[in-house]
């Protein structure tokens, strides 16, 4: 096997030196047959054997599932331990359609999950240890050729906020420790948290949570058929504002007893739209990394686009750098003028807030540059400058705040921001 891997790498190096494109599967099949092997060498073994001087040019070409980091970050999903649904305290039972949890047929799974989802199976193998879940997943992504300098956590597993605060602190602290390699005594990592929150907003700020996903459930007794569900999903994708995004809950299809018969609903909806001559314009579809992987297109003429709208009684501004002709999104910024009703003292008295800043495309390591990619090319800086101008001249704000993860605070410090409470802030006067 070692001779086979060495031969594969030699062919890849020769092709690179000659400027030729290669089909990795053909090379692996041909080389395995040459050495009389019944199976091809594994991709992770090939990546691990690439010589150091060629890693920078070869590993990106060998990367498995490039979609994993096409949005500019490596997403690591982890699960908390199985715990009883808090609804039992009020209703005596869980929601009828909710799988998982200690009281279900999938008793070793977390609430609302079956234990057969990829994230669930990784969590079960790690016995729901947050440190091991993180280390195993990060190492797996690294072996597959992905850059893991920028990590976003998604904490899954029912109502996380219903768990004791001591466990929550332990869980999030271990996520941080798994990345840093140190053992800490406090919570200091910003994460994206997939939860059903109750009255725990202050605690979320304390542990640097930057995003909350709200789950709403309908009470209609009628189940969707596959056809009607695709139609509904398709309807959302058509009429969704181009500053929003659609996500779909995943249940392993062998465990579905009735209703939806297909698991790839987004793919089916996009195919239906193509048949009818319409296009999906949500954020996910328009991302530059997704467009490059799926359609092999890159932006040609990039310009700043501004969209203003009212949401939840407030003034929102969506700034983005896009190629309008090809409808490709490179980076976005969500700016809001804070209302007087805000409960955070840092946001009172004429303050604007940047709710999200994101530049898409394949991950570029921190403090590095790659002219063929879009991160670290100044798009984020330009978006922040325009947001500051709008906040000062149009909102009349004297201060601008940013919801920032711990890992991005140094970026904001370089452009004049300082830490105030959970936010990075800058005076505009």
UniProtKB/TrEMBL annotation:
One of its GO terms (molecular function) is 4 iron, 4 sulfur cluster binding. SUPFAM superfamilies: Acyl-CoA N-acyltransferases (Nat). It is an enzyme of class 2 (transferase). InterPro entries: Acyl_CoA_acyltransferase, ELP3, ELP3-like_N, GNAT_dom. The lineage of its organism: Eukaryota, Metazoa, Chordata, Craniata, Vertebrata. It catalyses: uridine(34) in tRNA + acetyl-CoA + S-adenosyl-L-methionine + H2O = 5-(carboxymethyl)uridine(34) in tRNA + 5'-deoxyadenosine + L-methionine + CoA + 2 H(+). Its cofactor is [4Fe-4S] cluster. Belongs to the ELP3 family. One of its GO terms (cellular component) is cytoplasm. One of its GO terms (biological process) is tRNA wobble base 5-methoxycarbonylmethyl-2-thiouridinylation. This is Elongator complex protein 3. Its EC number is 2.3.1.311. Residues 278-429 form the N-acetyltransferase domain. The keyword Transcription regulation does not apply. It comes from the Eukaryota. Keywords: 4Fe-4S, Acyltransferase, Iron, Iron-sulfur, Metal-binding, RNA-binding, S-adenosyl-L-methionine, Transferase, tRNA processing, tRNA-binding. It comes from Naja naja (Indian cobra). PANTHER family: ELONGATOR COMPLEX PROTEIN 3, HISTONE ACETYLTRANSFERASE-RELATED. The keyword Acyltransferase applies. Pathway: tRNA modification; 5-methoxycarbonylmethyl-2-thiouridine-tRNA biosynthesis.
